[in-house]
Specification:
transmembrane, mainly alpha, globular, single chain
């Protein structure tokens, strides 16, 4: 996987995030649109993590990996509960917004990193 492919994928994901926030603002259902984007993003991340972990013969879990996985599972649970019926609960809204904006910040951070440091191959 080349860095150009990764940059294109990151830009597409960032555009999807920004489109979801603007569509949610226009339809007055911003919490629901953020929940859908969070759910899709977290499921994609977890699938990538599982596939990547299966390819490693000896994998040692680090504390930050446990923290990120726990946070992503928490965001996924809040997104699913927001999609099903609890979209008016303040706690669920707050976690959906925090997860959404942390994902956007991570995407922008990855784009800046890829822009500053030229990589030959990601894997």
């Amino acid at each position: 996987m080349t860095d150009t492919t990764v940059i294109i994928a990151l830009v597409i994901i960032l555009i999807c995030h920004l489109a979801a926030i603007s569509i949610g603002y226009k339809t007055k259902k911003i919490t629901l649109s953020i929940a859908y984007v969070n759910a899709v993003f977290v499921i994609g991340m977890l699938i990538f993590w599982v596939v990547d972990t299966v390819n490693i013969k000896t994998h040692h879990f680090e504390t930050r990996e446990w923290f990120v996985l726990g946070f992503e599972v928490c965001v996924l649970l809040c997104a699913i509960s927001s999609i099903t019926k609890f979209y008016n609960k303040t706690f669920v809204k707050i976690l959906n917004y925090i997860g959404f904006w942390l994902h956007v910040l991570a995407l922008v951070g990855m784009l800046v990193f890829m822009w500053w440091f030229k990589l030959e191959r990601l894997y």
